[in-house]
TrEMBL record:
<dbReference type="GO" id="GO:0008171">
    <property type="term" value="F:O-methyltransferase activity"/>
</dbReference>
<dbReference type="Pfam" id="PF08100">
    <property type="entry name" value="Dimerisation"/>
</dbReference>
<dbReference type="InterPro" id="IPR036388">
    <property type="entry name" value="WH-like_DNA-bd_sf"/>
</dbReference>
<dbReference type="InterPro" id="IPR036390">
    <property type="entry name" value="WH_DNA-bd_sf"/>
</dbReference>
<dbReference type="InterPro" id="IPR012967">
    <property type="entry name" value="COMT_dimerisation"/>
</dbReference>
<feature type="active site" description="Proton acceptor">
    <location>
        <position position="262"/>
    </location>
</feature>
<keyword id="KW-0949">S-adenosyl-L-methionine</keyword>
<dbReference type="InterPro" id="IPR029063">
    <property type="entry name" value="SAM-dependent_MTases_sf"/>
</dbReference>
<dbReference type="GO" id="GO:0032259">
    <property type="term" value="P:methylation"/>
</dbReference>
<dbReference type="InterPro" id="IPR016461">
    <property type="entry name" value="COMT-like"/>
</dbReference>
<dbReference type="Pfam" id="PF00891">
    <property type="entry name" value="Methyltransf_2"/>
</dbReference>
<feature type="domain" description="O-methyltransferase dimerisation">
    <location>
        <begin position="26"/>
        <end position="100"/>
    </location>
</feature>
<keyword id="KW-0808">Transferase</keyword>
<feature type="domain" description="O-methyltransferase C-terminal">
    <location>
        <begin position="123"/>
        <end position="333"/>
    </location>
</feature>
<dbReference type="GO" id="GO:0046983">
    <property type="term" value="F:protein dimerization activity"/>
</dbReference>
<protein>
    <submittedName>
        <fullName>8-O-methyltransferase</fullName>
    </submittedName>
</protein>
<dbReference type="InterPro" id="IPR001077">
    <property type="entry name" value="COMT_C"/>
</dbReference>
Length: 352
């Protein structure tokens, strides 16, 4: 009987192709993360800003680095495309020059600073969290002196750096919301948990007929005033100090909850949606945006964010569009609709 050789079976092919390389890449991913965080911590990229070129010896002396590690540390940043090496001199890559120089308004290194201090240590306790279900980051101070776990009186510049990093997201989101939503039907809105008012400012710049309110904790007010002056929106957006659980929300046409619900438990999310329904003007609109999980196990970026919020807060996590729509319906809203924006975000809109 004649037989045909069809080559190796699927199982054999998989076994032949399988190597531990992918395993090692995942296992060592933390090395790149920590290298970046340490580079931000020592302010390496600001030292090399504006086209400056320095040797390893010069950087070691400038930044008080030990010679045992310094060269391999710098070369690792070259391999990560965060530095460029010309002979014996190092300089910033294009992305580092634009986003990791503290003097530039495009700086996003504030996220690296917070990750280094809070999220990275919490991830080191992931196994404990898996066993207990409990957050592993320190509980944020609940007082009038802190924002983002940083004292606003003793480290105001660090608070500003983190806000600048958040602004990089909220500026892009404001552009999406300005384009996406029917603002011609409304005249007023409030951004709940709006930090220093960046989203609100860019919305009124894009939709000049709008009046905005930024609601956040009282210690954000000084940073809000500075930012409105810088953007030229003083008087067009006002600041309202408050606790969005305990205090009345502004009575406006549109309420925006951006990067807020993921900090809280499902029970508290429902309370916030009910609170919003009571505050909105009749015919008003609620807008919720987050990195909502689409249900795919391959949605790795948002799953990482979700686990981070689980590790950093007692009830936080990302959530699905379906869950968000259900909370809105349960709170009395109707006709929820969702939109995918900015590659990794979802916006859910519903009517009062």
């Amino acid at each position: 009987m004649k037989t045909t050789d069809t080559g190796p079976t699927r199982a054999a092919q998989d076994t032949t192709a399988a190597t531990p390389q992918a395993f090692h890449e995942v296992l060592l991913a933390y090395c790149g993360s920590k290298t970046l965080m340490s580079a931000v911590e020592i302010d390496l990229f600001s030292t090399l800003a504006d086209g400056k070129r320095m040797t390893e010896d010069e950087l070691r002396k400038q930044l008080s680095l030990h010679p045992r590690l310094s060269r391999h540390f710098l070369d690792t940043l070259v391999a990560l495309d965060l530095l460029v090496k010309d002979g014996e001199h190092y300089r910033n890559s294009a992305v580092s020059e634009q986003y990791l120089d503290r003097a530039k308004p495009t700086y996003v290194g504030g996220f690296a600073e917070t990750t280094n201090d809070t999220f990275y240590p919490a991830w080191g306790k992931l196994t404990k969290a898996l066993r207990t279900g409990q957050a592993q980051a320190p509980i944020p101070p609940d007082d009038s002196d802190h924002l983002f776990r940083v004292n606003v009186h003793t480290e105001p510049d660090r608070v500003r750096r983190f806000m600048t990093a958040m602004d990089s997201h909220s500026t892009a989101m404001a552009g999406e919301l300005a384009r996406l939503l029917p603002w011609d039907r409304f005249t007023s809105f409030a951004d709940i948990g709006g930090c220093r008012g960046n989203l609100s400012a860019h919305l009124v710049l894009a939709q000049p007929h709008l009046k905005g309110i930024c609601l956040d904790r009282a210690q954000s007010a000084q940073f809000f005033d500075e930012h409105m002056t810088a953007l030229g929106t003083t008087g067009r957006v006002t600041f309202q100090a408050g606790d969005f659980f305990a205090d009345d929300l502004p009575r406006v046409d549109v309420l925006v909850f951006g990067h807020v619900l993921h900090d809280w438990s499902p029970e508290n999310r429902v309370l916030l949606m009910e609170h919003a329904h009571r505050a909105l003007n009749p015919g008003g609109m609620i807008v919720v945006y987050d990195r909502m999980i689409d249900g795919s196990p391959l949605d790795l970026h948002r799953l990482f964010y979700s686990l981070t919020f689980m590790l950093a807060s007692g009830g936080g996590s990302e959530y699905s569009v379906e869950q968000c729509s259900r909370w809105l319906l349960d709170a009395g809203f109707h006709t929820p609709r969702s939109h995918r924006v900015l590659a990794d975000h979802s916006v859910v809109v519903a009517q009062r």
